[in-house]
Task: structure prediction
Amino acid sequence: MMEKKYIYNVLMGRGYNAYSAQLVTEDLSKLSDPLNDYLLSWLNDESYNGDFETNGYSISQLQTERRMSYPAALLTMDWLMKEPEKAIESLNRKIK
Result:
């Protein structure tokens, strides 16, 4: 598990407000493998945009089609891995 303080400090340095950074830090610190490696790379270099695909979705697709930030796309990918049926149903409902 990645150190929460490190994640929080990087998010704050990248313009997140304290409340959002705190909420997102908790979830990001619990990412599944290999997503935690993608997060670490992004935390070290904001321009990092490594891609990963699962259950018909990819990080880059979520960023492009849903206008998600890289951390938000990572959290969505984690949800797709942990609860694929719920995540896919939710994502499909939002496609218009």
About this structure: The longest strand covers residues 53-54. The chain has a mean pLDDT of 95.
